[in-house]
Specification:
Elements: E1 32-36, H1 41-46, E2 52-57, H2 60-72, E3 81-86, E4 92-99, E5 102-105, H3 112-134, H4 138-152, H5 161-171
Antiparallel strand pairs: 1-2, 1-3, 3-4, 4-5
């Protein structure tokens, strides 16, 4: 789902890769995994990139709180980081961008038609980002890829769309 790191450039200041959660020996029987994209170039180049699991949780509410804990542990000058909550079958339940102490959850699509429109727009943004990169417009290219990442974060699995939308309403 996340084919480019978010943001596209590396942070200026070294940031610890992931916070230490209390549940370091994550129980794979727990239903929800809090993940972040794998930034290693080797995995991306080999086509084996999978999201890095930060921790696992029994409920969606706990996973959302875990994302906020992760955001709280980020440095105040750290760039936003994409987070995703996946279920046991690696279906996207919810995704958003974490920054210093907050997570901006992306509103899930509500229909297949909206999902197709989001995929089309994200593809167009990535194509435009690629062409602006060729023109040496790296700042614009990075912003376009970030926007595409945020759009793709809305592509919640159809099984979870209504549930995730309701969870965001309750959390608000």
């Amino acid at each position: 789902m996340f084919d480019h790191s978010f943001p596209a450039s590396a942070p200026v200041f070294p940031v610890p890769p992931h916070p230490a959660f209390d549940n370091a020996a994550a129980d794979t029987d727990l239903a929800f995994a809090l993940t972040t994209p794998d930034h290693s170039s080797g995995a991306a180049m080999s086509g084996t990139a999978r999201p890095l699991v930060l921790d696992r949780f029994a409920t969606l509410a706990e996973a959302m709180r875990g994302a906020i804990v992760h955001a709280d542990q980020m440095a105040c000058d750290a760039p936003p980081q994409m987070l995703a909550i996946l279920d046991r079958e690696d279906r996207l339940v919810l995704a958003g961008a974490a920054t210093d102490g907050a997570v901006a959850w992306c509103r899930p699509v509500i229909s297949a038609a909206e999902a197709r429109a989001v995929v089309s727009e994200a593809s167009q943004l990535r194509a435009h980002a690629s062409s602006t990169s060729d023109w040496q417009e790296h700042g614009l290219s990075q912003k376009l890829r970030q926007r595409a990442d945020l759009l793709e974060a809305r592509l919640v699995d159809p099984l979870w769309r209504a549930f995730a939308a309701r969870a965001l309403q309750v959390a608000a």
